[in-house]
Structures are given as structure tokens and as C-alpha cells.
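pls read this protein.

:::
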Amino acid sequence: MANKTIMLGNEAIARGAFEAGVKLSSAYPGTPSTEISEFLAKYDEVYTEWAPNEKVAAEVAIGASISGVRSMACMKHVGLNVAADPLYTFSYTGVNGGSVFVVADDPGLASSQNEQDTRMIARAAHVPVLEPSDSQEAKDFMKYAYELSEKYDTPVILRTTTKLAHSQSAVTLEDRVEVPDKEYSRNLAKYVMMPASAIGRHLVVEDRENRMAADAVNFPVNKTEILDKKIGFITCGIAYQYVKEAFPSASVLKLGLVNPLSKELIANFISQVETVYVFEELEPVMEEQIRAWGFNVKGKECFTRQGEYSANLLRRAVLGSDETAFDKADAAARPPILCPGCPHRSVFSVLNKLKIHAAGDIGCYTLGAVAPLSVIDTTICMGASISSLHGMEKARGKDYVKNWVAVIGDSTFLHTGINSLIGMVYNKATGTVMILDNRTTGMTGHQEHAATGKTLKGEETYAVDLAQLCRAVGVKNVIEVNSFDTAKLESVIKESVNGDELTVIIAKSPCVLLKGQKFPNVCKVDSDACRKCGMCMKIGCPAMNRDENGKVKIDATMCNGCGLCKNYCKFGAISTVER
């Protein structure tokens, strides 16, 4: 079979894994990588799963590789931090069946807490990195990654970015290749990384990397285009598209293998071009290596380390102006906001009323940091809300955390929150931990997790009981409450923060955007009864506004009928009616 279709970069990556004969994929959802696993789950030939976190996903893929099959793990760039522990050692052991880690970086911070560059970790771990520039290459590079993995006995990282992950281009589809399982042979020197074995494997890694760098001059993923010899670009990934758009007549060295680099290939290109720019998003990874070899190139002194690149940015940096630029139309700012009917809004409205600070975590609930709710004070990484609250209490004493809570989602709690909670129990901590259980992994697009009762493929499975889990690790005071029962929430939170024991409050209500959620009611304002006090407006629901007379009005097309605004109206001006 060979036919063309239009595919997202993420869809093409999934297709490449399928065509390469991959048998197992494990992942934790994280924008911009999430859809890879969702697309891959449509292929029955591939076992796909959501793991509790990226470390587990990596270890599952490693186990599959050692057993002799082609495997993959998918994550976003900050997820690689979580998976780094097994990755660094996997680099030493090498593979049996080929294994690829797909890592999606997020230049421009579309949905992340930092802008780290995966190539930096790959260099430190001595893991080769391939970086495609369009959907066709995303598919092809996945297949080539498995060839390299098995030829050089190494895990391989396929690095993608937000722009590539969510852009579409034409892809030629091919048939799946069924790769025979490789035999497993017990080999302590290769797979048991105790010091005596690891010393020897470190030498293997060095030799492998040197051989790959030498061979890379002939790798098909690296392409040299000699045109105008006055100006040239060394580039990779999506940045290549910007070079071709802005300078179509320039010479280009397009590197598909961005770690390790081929010195011979780069030297040959530079020798033919008068002025060479290294054009790479984020960190000067290639530039620093090229300069270290003694080559005179231009790079980050012309281009920023921050954000996504573009053809316009390139024209301005090289030419000093951009004749194609146009003035952007004035548009109202549209900051992200919690959806109408979001259960997090209800919880945060109570915390705001009580003037309680919240140590936050990664998820939709980070939006509770901004006005008018303004309750989230910290966001660091997955699971950090609980640990940072613990640190506050141990550093400043029990009284200090009587106006603080830790806020974490159900999926994030299972990701890395459990260990943090165990740490609080073990170290005799006090404080209030709030698990906002909306029955999904919300911000990345509503993926299943270990407490939803469904697998990635939609199969029924055991659903972890969060309350029982908390009690099992030693939390004696565990309280479950409906997120929209604001009166009970207020009472429970007051009692908890003023107590002297560790309390977990599980605020339960499904995400309003989950499939199957039905909203039979809508909120309605009796304009005559409205006193314009604005109490209901303090919750920040986007379905609510004021009319020309300053009275509250509700957009019925946006309202989900949760009734939170009704809870805050002291004059009975808001009611719920059938939609």
C-alpha cells in the first residue's frame, strides 16, 4: 500500500511507529505530545497504554525492548525530566529490540512551565536525537530511528516541537513491517548496571557515539543544499521550513540527526559558503559544538533563545527588516480561563472567600492564580504542591500553614503526588491537601488515568479509589465532598486548616467537558431582584456579564447550569431552570 493523506505531525509519528513494527507504547499525556498515543491506540497491532507518569512509561518501554520487541515511550519535554533516571542508564545498557523516546518540546510556552531543550538532556545522556521538519519526515524519521537504535545498540530520541506536532502536511502511507522478535539472552554485563558493569558500558557508549558521528556524513536524514554560496544556514526541524520560506535561494545544511553531529559534514558545508548562520530554536546546542570545533558561524548573537521562531524573525535578524511584515489587527486580549461550570472554580471561590493561599500544581487549576479567584500562589512541577506545603510546615511551623492548602488534580496526584503525601505522613506533617477529582486528565484533553476505570483503548479496568489510597498510606482524616457544595466545602476547609493533623479533602465533580456530561439546567437572572452587588461576579464565570444598567446577565449559550453563581446570590435573584 502507498497512498497520500494529510496528517498532523503527531498522527504521522504514530503512523511511523505502526509502520516500523512497534509492538508496545507507553506514555503519560502532556501537550504537545498527547495525540501521538491517542492516534497510535487506533492500531490494534500495537499495545498502547497510559502510564501513571513518564518514568513508569520509560521503564515499561525499556522492559519491552529488553524482551526483544520494538517499543516506544512518549512524553513532553518536562516529562523527560521524570523519565531521565531510567533514560541515562538505558543509554548504558543499550537495547535488544529497538526503542524510541518521542519527546515534544514547547518553544513559546504554549502549555508548559518552562522552555527546556531536550537536546541538552540527550547530550548529557549520550542518546542520539532525530528531529523532523514536517509530517512526512515525522513518519519516516520514526522508522529510521528504529534502524539506528538496533544498528548502534542505543535508545533514540525523536524530538518534536509544538508547531510540528500540531501542523499538517502530506504523508505517503506504507504497509506495516512485522519485525521478528529478537531472542533474549541473559547478559549481566549489558543489562545489570552495577558499578563493575557500568564502567565497561560507559566505554561502549563512547565508542557507539563516535561511530555514529563518523557515519552520519552519509545518513539520509542529513541533507545539503548548495545554492547561493554567499549565505548559508545550518538548521534542523521546523526551523528549516522558516529558512526555506525566508531565504529560498540560500544554501542549507539540514540536519536530521542533531546529536551527535557530523563534523565532516558540517566542515564540508562551511567550506563552501561565505557566511553561515546556525538557526535553531531554543538553546545553541549545535552552535556551541560547531564553534568548539573552531568554525566561524553566526548564531544566538542574531537570534533569540526564547520562544518559537518564524520566517519573519529570520528576515528581521539577517536583513534588519522584514518587507513582508504587516501590522497586526488590534484584538482584545483573551487570557485562558476556567470553563463555565468547572468544578475547580467552585473550590477556588471558597478558598478566595476564606483568604487561603494554595500551593498549586500542573493542570487546569493553575488558572486559579489569576484574578478574580487569585488563590494559587505557586506552580512548580507535577506533584510539587504537596511537597512544597510540607516544606513550608517543616520550615515555619504548624501555625504558618493554617492559611495554606495544597491543591492537586486526580491525575497529577497519581503521577507524583502519592510519594509526596507519603512523605508528609512519614515525617509527621500537618496541613491540608485538596485533591480536585474531576475524573480525567483535563488540561491535555481528557485522557483516562488509573482512577477513571478506563484504559487508553477504552477498555473497562479497575479504578483506583483515591480515598482508600490516602488512608492506606496513613492519612487518618480523609474527607470526600461535592465540589459544588460550597457550604460544606467552607466548613470542611475551615476545620481542616485550623486542625493539628494531616487532612486530605477530595473535592469531587466531573469535568464539564467530559463526553456524556449532560446539563439539563441553565442559570437565569431575575433582573428585578438583582441588587448589582457583584458577589456572583467574583467567581469569574465567563458566562456572566453586566447589562447597560449594571445588573448581572447570564449567557444561556455558555452557561452549564452548575449553580455556583446561585450559591453566592444573597437576594435570590439567580435560579436554575430547565434548558
About this structure: The longest helix spans residues 195-215. DSSP finds 19 helices and 23 strands in the chain. The two ends are 50 Å apart (CA to CA).
